[in-house]
Amino acid sequence: MADAVAEAIGDGTHLLVQAGTGTGKSLGYLAPALARIIDSGDRDRVVVATATLALQAQLATKDIPTALDAAEAVTGKRPKAAILKGRTNYACLYKVRGGGPLEQDSLLGAESLVEAAAAGKGDDVGRFGAEVLALREWVEEEAQREGLADRDDAPSHTARGWAQVSIPTRECLGVASCPFGNECFVERSREQARDASLVITNHALLAINAMHGGTVLPEHAALIVDEAHELVSRITTAATDELTPGLVERTARRCLTWLDDDLGADFLTQADDVREALDESEAGRVTATSAPLVRAAEALRDVARRVVSALGKGDGDKSAPDPDRQQAASAAQEVFDVAERIAKLADVDVVWVSHSEIVGAAAYVAPLNVAGLLREQVFAETPTVLTSATLSLGGSFEPAAASVGLRAADRVAAGAEAPDPLAWRGLDVGSPFDYRRQGILYVAKKGPEPGRDGLREETLREIAQLMWAAGGRTLGLFASRRAAEQAAEWCRLELPDLTILCQGDAQLSELTARFAAEQDTSLFGTMSLWQGVDVPGETCQLVIIDKIPFPRPDDPLMQARKRAVDDAGGNGFMSVAATHAALLLAQGAGRLIRRSTDRGVVAVLDPRLVTKRYGSFLKSSLPDFWLTTDGDVAVQALRRLRGEE
């Protein structure tokens, strides 16, 4: 892997490299990256993008320091490394110092208020006030010591509390206009990144950089994308906009101070019009220009344009613009942009309506495809390495390559000259694990196919039997919260001596910590557990997957992507639905074997994996476990693992 990464960075050919769990893929790309940086005299910067902030932190605190120590020991040189996150991950001094009622809530210090809240004294408002005061005091301490006020380093807080000390990207005044621009934490983090040769960021910021013409990340000679199987999803999320009546109403009220009565009333009325349009709309994709949502978006767009114009004219001293007015204008501009995008119903976008008991009615607009964006704004600009434990789907790199804009015709062999700047290579470096000896893949061929009415009793009985054989030690991966709860309830009755945790019982981090610490405990959950759960050893000897994780038939974006492939003459089911399922299956099955001493069974209770034609594509995406369709074989193997015959 290190050789292939060095070759890719050297000749500019893009690389997709699959590196299984336990290969040490982080060091596999960090070693050649640091070698390139040192050989260039720190002139060539390398950017590493991870899927999440948590993975970014793990890389920055563990793998990169290890690699830097090694580089220094070998070469005598230690390149600078820096972390770069999105704006909302840093506190905003303008927000903190801008005043507000919470500053006058108490003459007590924040620490005293927190102690009182912990003792049960005071109501929710008091506890929230204490939280915000503690955050504000911490921000000022960070300013004094010239820190970064990074959210990950902040005192314990809620999302609501953090919102009181941070600011949305669109509402930032800009370093030139902000009275605290010379102390700005975001600018300080970007200065550190510009001064570093190795920059660690995340997929979301990579997306923003691509969408804004490369203005967010510092110039770099190479890009390495870790956990690349999540790249398309993360880019899509970053490029998705939401419109709700609440957003329109909050924005309108912020703008009223600077609007005449008629325009202010018009803006407020738009919130009711959007709410009415959403209430009239069925959940699902919107395609008709005459749809109530589209008409409401057109009216909102026109009013928001007038608001932005009115707020932008300003008055008084032009050299000292009103910061609050400037922020209100930015919020109105965001409403305008979203409304215009929905009103256009462009072919490159998918618009849909969602109804939720928690969130209420909302409209969304997302890109139909992000392959073009990645091809033009990422791969055409920088030699890029994509790496993950699951990049080869159905035994081929082509599906993953196509999803990010790399064409099968542009693939070149290792060592061959790359005739095109969009040429790419694929490499599977294998795994240190002997999957056929360490694990069994059991497929319930004789079981019922999954239905929409929850788990069948036959399936529930099989889950209980497998768990009994394993003595707990089970990670249950279910397609829905309802199925997970149904299975947990059944198994708690059938197996009262076993501890079964279910997603929703407590915070997910608390549940996964208990699962890891208590050997005989089992954990059931949904998509949050399919990726990122790393529990080696005897705690996890059975992974149950209730059904093939195809996209939901009511997922407007996935269905639109499938239809677009069909319309272009391709196979939308295989290109979109089956590829999506293969990726998740590979991730889910990968929870079982995390080190060379692990043993266990992956039980897929969906017979379609072996009875349908697409099953071979899905199976070839999984680790090379020994396959059986005999449930008794799986049960006996699990009993032997815990010392029973």
Automatic annotation (TrEMBL):
Assigned keywords, A-Z: ATP-binding, Helicase, Hydrolase, Nucleotide-binding
Specify where the region named Disordered lies, as residue ranges: 311-331
* Ranges annotated as biased composition (Basic and acidic residues): 314-325
Instruction: Name the EC number(s).
Output: 3.6.4.12
| Top EC class for this record | hydrolase
Instruction: List each coiled-coil range.
Output: none
Q: Where is the Helicase ATP-binding domain?
A: 1-279
**Entries under PROSITE patterns matching the protein:** HELICASE_ATP_BIND_2
Q: Does the keyword Transcription apply?
A: no
Family membership noted in the UniProt record: Belongs to the helicase family. DinG subfamily.
This chain belongs to the protein called ATP-dependent DNA helicase
